[in-house]
Amino acid sequence: MRILLAGGTICPFDSSRSCISSGYLGIEDGRIAFVADTLPTGFSPDRTIDCRGDLILPGFVNCHTHLAEDLFKGLMEEVNFEGLFYTTLFRWEALLDPEMVYWGSMAGALDALRCGVTTIADMYHYASATAEAVAEVGIRGHIGQKILGFALERPPHQTEHGIDYNFDFSAFSAQLNAAVEFASAWAGKAGGRITTCIAPHATNTLDREMLSAIADRAAAEELSIHLHLAQMASEREAIRVREGMGCVAFLEDVGLLERPVLGAHAIFVDEGEIEILRRNHVSIAHNPVPNARDAGVVAPIDRMRDAGVTVGLGTDAFEMNLLQTARFAVLINRIHAGRPDYLPAYDALAMATIEGAKALGLGKEIGSLEAGKKADVTVFDMSRFNTQPTREPVKNLLYYGDTCNVGLVIVDGEVVFEQGRFVRVDAERVLDELRRASDRLQARIAASATGGE
Ligand SMILES: [Zn+2]
């Protein structure tokens, strides 16, 4: 299939850092054939799409998601997140089944496409169910199955002396084996759209022996790692008490940073740990919206970026609007920096595209519009009120753009979302099944609260 996008402003996010004001982008066999300001001769497209007035960008890369956590939407937004996290969330997750995770993931993946996101990096339970959804919907997924240091049925609990994590090495081992099995079974599936990793949950929900076992296994299987890193004050405190060091220093100490690592959040890190991130080439997924919403904190991404750490953007749970996340990253970090010129629109959108792709270890294949790369493309309709007049399309999109501007989404050279319609999937059916799965989960939560099932 050959597709020609004709006449739009193309911002390739390549090393030139420049845009073509009226250009042509050719796609052939799933890859970008050319990006040019004049139409090359000899390219005969099967389909030509008129993109005059549009802004054409690499598809967004969402570096940290839990698609199926959509099922808990509305239950956790105005509570003591850290308290809920240890006392309640794991108990709720124990009530999930693969079918619920499948429909939660289907809905999350469609929501992602609607927001112009072409790649998600997901870590959750029943990762095979998420991988099936990713394969079906047509999005690209970098997926890992979550590994905990305890049995989900016997989660941590609060005691008068703090949190008892209920560590259980045999329960952990079974989860590690399952996660590795998932990673090898799904790597390269869906025509190469699925890549895999392993996903230890966080630095404090596994102990030293477990993280060391993960480091050994990841090295033996040549797997990359995606985990929550220094997300919560209680996480930092637990590692300080247990190990006498910070979360990042602890990961280096157990050998985990010898593999490619994507750390989500990195809020509670000091200058020394930023240096550890840099020298170990650890990438960070910055999730400014949930960090502000759940804990009122912001990660020091200004200092990480200055140090040369690769920082992509993530939405974490419940939403997929990476454009809003990029805008929020600009605003909150500008408050933090006290400068109106900090994190320009172009740099924020680079974090949503090429920097995110690099953070996942996929920077050579996706994240920018260059000949030879996989054709993951989002076309924004800039003719709407919120983005007119469009003298500076990149600034207009970052500061004023919304999901209403997402006109066309292409993944792996295939149109998967166009003018509000999902090409591969019946969205109404997915919404029905999502609501049904959510109702079943709520019934289980209610039953478990009263002691029955
Ligand atoms: Zn998360």
Question: How would you characterize the overall build of this protein?
Answer:
The chain has 453 residues and is an alpha/beta fold. The chain folds into 2 domains: 2-58 and 375-422, Roll (Urease, subunit C, domain 1); 60-359, TIM Barrel, CATH 3.20.20.140. Helices cover 39% and strands 23% of the residues. It has 15 helices and 19 strands. The strands form 4 sheets. Strands 1, 2, 3, 4, 5, 16, 17, 18 and 19 form a 9-stranded mixed β-sheet that branches. Helix 2 (98-114) crosses helix 15 (427-449) and helix 12 (345-352) packs across helix 14. It is globular. The mean pLDDT is 95. Bound molecules: zinc ion. Residues 64, 66, 228, 264, 316 line the site of zinc ion.
Percentage beta strand? 15-25%
Largest sheet descriptor? 9 strands, mixed
The helical percent reads: 25-40%
The CATH homologous superfamily of the largest domain? Metal-dependent hydrolases
Low-confidence stretches: none
- What's the oligomerization state? single chain
Secondary-structure content class = alpha/beta
And the CATH topology of the largest domain? TIM Barrel
Give the domain tally: 2
Care to count the β-strands? 19
Question: What small molecules are bound in this structure?
Answer: zinc ion
Shape: globular
CATH architecture of the largest domain: Alpha-Beta Barrel
Radius of gyration: 22 Å
**What is the CATH top level name of the largest domain?**
Alpha Beta
Mean of residue pLDDT values: 95
Number of helices: 15
How many angstroms does the end-to-end distance come to? Answer: 51 Å
